[in-house]
Amino acid sequence: MAFKRLLRGCQCCFLWLWLGCAAPQPATAPSITSVASPVSYQHIVRRNPNLSILVVQINLGDPRVAVHVSRGGPAPDGPGPWVTTLLPASEIAAREHYDIAINGDFFAARSTHDIEGWGTGYVKGKFAAPSGMAMTAGQLWHKGTRPYLEITAGHVARVIDGGVTDAVDPAAREIIGGGQVIVRDGKAVPCTGSLATARHPRTVVGVDKSGTQLTLLVVDGRQPKLSIGMTLAELSTEMLALGCAGALNLDGGGSSTLVVRDAATHQLIVRNSPSDGKERAVADVLGVTVNGPLPEVK
């Protein structure tokens, strides 16, 4: 009898072990790693005075990012002085599949006076040319002697004071012209004249000391209840606070535009409030593609 009880005990033990091995094991939840975007976005709102400032910062050292310069339309008159046609920044960004874009250089347009607001003569399709140099994918398509931003084949950005076109860095692959250098070697550069000392909508691009962080800033203006704009001195202070060692003022006023693709809908959206009351057509843009998560826009 004792032997039989021992045998039944061994059988129960074996059965228990077999069922334990055969029972399904709880699934292990897959680990989820958050992948940071190589691009950040912030919207700064201030009061007294009213300011609406939009900032995008880009890690040029991240292989998921590419920065390019694109003209509006194709050259309309062959070897003539007009090298592009005006086009809104959002339309250029859509055509080039950019995720982020800002308006670029100052420009001239055929038979156009500088008029602000809804009656502006800067409309889609007009023959135009940027005021300074412009390069796309290593091809220089407009010459000039004004200051400019260059991005090299090594993905390093630099603000250049300007000068002779033939002295362009052979490593440059993308160039966009601008007006005034407002930060140089980590210090504000004094700018004079009514356009510098009055508050206007502004677009500015800056680089840190290493040349691997690119900062794009658009501040709205001429809209007292929303944003009054900035002087160039105020703009240089802002860029220094954002870590820029060099900064270049681009075309502003009604041209100032920031376009950012929405991460959820994948639609390109004009994030600022253009002072013309609508988006202005421009000669060229600085565009960014992001092969990764887009910045969160709140």
Spans of at least 5 consecutive residues whose pLDDT stays below 50 are 1-7, 9-34
N-to-C order of helices and strands: HEEEEEHEEEEEEEEEEHEEHEEEEE
- Gross morphology is globular
Query: What's the mean pLDDT score?
Result: 89
- Overall strand count: 22
- The span between the termini is 79 Å
Helix proportion range: 10-25%
Strand line-up across the major sheet: 1-2-17-16-18-14-15
Rg from Cα = 27 Å
Secondary-structure-based class equals alpha+beta
Task: Explain what you see.
A hairpin with a 4-residue loop joins strand 11 (148-152) and strand 12 (157-160). With 298 residues, the chain is an alpha+beta fold. The chain has helices spanning 2-22, 89-96, 194-197, 232-241; strands at residues 39-46, 51-59, 65-71, 84-85, 87-88, 100-103, 107-109, 127-130, 134-136, 139-142, 148-152, 157-160, 172-177, 181-184, 187-188, 202-207, 213-219, 246-249, 258-261, 268-270, 281-282, 284-290. Residues 1-7 and 9-34 have low confidence and may be disordered. The N and C termini lie far apart (79 Å). The longest helix is centred in the N-terminal third of the chain and has 21 residues, at 2-22.
Summarize the structure.
With 298 residues, this protein is an alpha+beta fold.
How does the SSE layout of this entry go?
Blueprint: H1 2-22, E1 39-46, E2 51-59, E3 65-71, E4 84-85, E5 87-88, H2 89-96, E6 100-103, E7 107-109, E8 127-130, E9 134-136, E10 139-142, E11 148-152, E12 157-160, E13 172-177, E14 181-184, E15 187-188, H3 194-197, E16 202-207, E17 213-219, H4 232-241, E18 246-249, E19 258-261, E20 268-270, E21 281-282, E22 284-290
Antiparallel strand pairs: 1-2, 2-17, 3-22, 4-8, 5-21, 6-19, 6-22, 7-8, 9-10, 9-13, 11-12, 11-13, 14-15, 14-18, 16-17, 16-18, 19-20
